[in-house]
Amino acid sequence: MQLSHKDKSLILLITTALVVLWIIFSLFSHLFFGNFKNSDSAKIISSPKQDWINLSRPLEQSDLEDRVILLDFWTYSCVSCIEATAEIKKLEERFGNKLTVIGVHSARSASEAKNSALKKAVLKRNIDFPVVNDPELKIWNNFKIKSLPSFALINAMGKLERTYSGLDEMDQLKTDVKKIIEKHKIKISREPLPLMLEKYNTIGNVLSFPTKLEYAARFSYKSRNLPVLFIANSAQNSIVASSLTGEIILKIGSEKEGFVDGDFDSARFNNPLGILFDGNKLYVADSGNHALRVIDFKEEKVSTLIGSGFRGQKIESNTEGKNASLSSPSDLEFFPNKNVIAIANPGSNQILSYDIKANSVSVLAGDLAQTADLASFGGKLYFVDSYDSSLRVVDQKKEVKTLLDKDSGLQHPLGLAVDDTGVYVVDSLNNKIRKFDFASKKLQDFAGSQADLDEPEGIIAVLDRFYVADSNNNRILSINRGSLKAEILDVMPPLRLPKEGFLEYLPNLQTLEKLVVKKDLELAIKIELDDGWKINEQGPSFVNLLGLTSQDKADLVASFDWVSVKEKEMKLPKLSSSKDYLLQGTIYYCEEKENALCYIKSYEQKISAESEGAEEIKIILGGKDGQK
Predict the structure, then answer these.
(1) DSSP state of 260
(2) Comparing C-alpha atoms, which of 156, 181, 163, 189 is closest to residue 39?
(3) What is the pLDDT of residue 497?
(4) What average pLDDT does the segment 501-519 reach?
(5) With contact defined as beta carbons under 8 Å apart, do 464 and 481 qualify?
(6) What is the pLDDT averaged over residues 237-259?
(7) Using 50, 70 and 90 to split pLDDT, how confident is the model at 624?
(8) How many other C-beta atoms can be found within 10 angstroms of the C-beta atom of residue 606?
(9) What are phi and psi of 88, to 5 degrees?
(10) Strand order in 150-154's β-sheet?
(11) Phi, psi (5° rounding) for residue 36?
């Protein structure tokens, strides 16, 4: 069969059209699909072996397609970075799944670059967006970042819109985020990332990243008069008053982040740090709220002295308290007398003076480097600047002198205490307590090598002891000044059983599936722990069996205190098939070693009795995970 000229022309036309369509499709695929690997978004995936936090798996390039991405470059030892992250959280809350926030941790030191340390920093600062550890600064270099904090805004086409440096550009960043989201709103992917928040993988504790401590030799509250240790329980946004044996006398704050005055149960703080006691009042450096708060134990209320919840700028001159704004205050100290409170204000690199009677704020010292802690002694105010790892002192003439600079070997000091022999410095990233000796002018190790400290923060001297807030271990250590022996102060909450029989407070609760047991049989409750773990005999562990009388009421059937719990086996009375039961308990347990880490696990389980069923009840503790 011979094709006509017309047929040949038609075939040629069709072939040409197909070739053109293929070329167009290839170009389209290259521009809009294949080109992603060369986009700015792809620069985030610097290595297939990146360490990600708050994710169930590392992100891939495909996860980042069609997203408006905000990169937050930060490190956890930088106060301005923490202030910036608080603003980034607000943006994330405002725009929801239209904005993808990724934290890029750009460490300043090898200690900060450890993934284990970063995980704790994410927990301490309650960060819920994905964070990638960038210890070699690959992502930093990919986006040509020069300083911290910095930000990079990427549009839904994967193109970098611009970078921003410092808090001064935060307002412009917020404006640009809104514009870019509006421009790309049709294209933006709203598919959720594979989130798995770190805080859900962590066992709870009574203390959560405690930071600062204060001692009151005589604390009067209601009918009690006793010496107490005040603890800034920072990650739980509360203040704890503990006896020197660890009994919790009082807790102030709802544990919900916020800025609310009021009674002790409803008041809210945001990362409270420095605390200062006098006249049955406790002054609080409410860091996240940029405020100075006061707890009045006689009136049983919390009120605000300085601050409105917004970050302040550098204070240049005398300012009325009501008009002053702080910037991430970290510590408080009376200086030069008890009518004036010195305020470490690291966000503006100043130490401020607050005259209580005049209600006015002035500048005591400026041009500092992220002051973290204060201590007065001998008419002088000693302080540590964490950013340049220095120890300094200021006198009443406002003259500042550096005692130790960054070449001393200190690494991000966060606390100090002073006596007539020298200054005891909490060398946080070196996990030590070190002493600057007044006589020799030398710095030497004092304690910490045998105590397994993990980024300690606050320290105070009480009689023959130092108390140290071992922040990342969620504990308070007591160190004997003579023997240097360290012991854990077991801070334990009081347990209350209301009329209905149900416990009001069950820390770190795990609710188990309903269990059917054999009726009319003396059942055994058995506690099983991993090797190397033991029941904490100083903790108020207990197990209660309740008989349910209605949905919200119960009678106590059997109760076992810590004496019984430490034996790890308890016998229950025979149970009836005519009633449902509820097993509740809290168990305190520790590693079997000196200065061990300790944890809490609570259980709740409904139980019914039938003719056939289990003949024992097991409570399983699996070391740090709390369960196997």
Answers:
(1) B
(2) 156
(3) 42
(4) 76
(5) yes
(6) 94
(7) low
(8) 16
(9) -65, -40
(10) 51-53, 131-133, 100-105, 69-74, 150-154, 160-165
(11) -60, -35
349-to-7, 164, 608 alpha-carbon distances in Å: 84, 22, 62
More confident residue, 203 or 298: 298
For the ranges 95-99, 119-123, 549-553, 598-602, which has the lowest average pLDDT? Answer: 549-553
Spatial separation of the C-alpha atoms in residues 430 and 413, rounded to whole Å: 9
* Amino acid (one-letter) located at 430: N
Q: What local confidence, expressed as pLDDT, does residue 259 receive?
A: 98
Q: Look up residue 195 and give its two tokens.
A: 């989130």
Both tokens assigned to 243? 């006896």
Band (558; pLDDT cuts 50, 70, 90) = confident
User: 217-237 burial, b if ≥16 CB within 10 A, otherwise e?
Assistant: eebeeeeeeeebbbbbbbbbb
Question: Mean pLDDT across the stretch 308-314?
Answer: 94
Polymer length of the chain: 628
Residues 18 and 10: beta-carbon distance below 8 Å = no
Q: Quote the pLDDT of residue 8.
A: 62
Residue 61 burial (C-beta neighbours within 10 Å; 0-12, 13-18, 19+): middle
CB 320 within 8 A of CB 307: no
278 backbone φψ class: left, alpha, beta (φ>0; ψ -120 to 50): beta
Strand-pair partners of 55: 195
Collapsing DSSP to helix, strand or coil, 340 comes out as strand
Give the pair of three-digit tokens for residue 220: 């009067």
Cβ neighbour number for residue 369 with a 10 Å cutoff = 16
Tokens of 126: 């309650």
Element holding 90 (H helix, E strand): helix 79-95
Task: Report the distance separating Cα 387 and Cα 509, nearest Å.
Answer: 39
DSSP letter at 453? -
pLDDT at 493: 66
DSSP string covering 8-24, please?
Answer: HHHHHHHHHHHHHHHHH
Mean pLDDT value of segment 4-21: 68
Please give the pLDDT value at position 336.
98
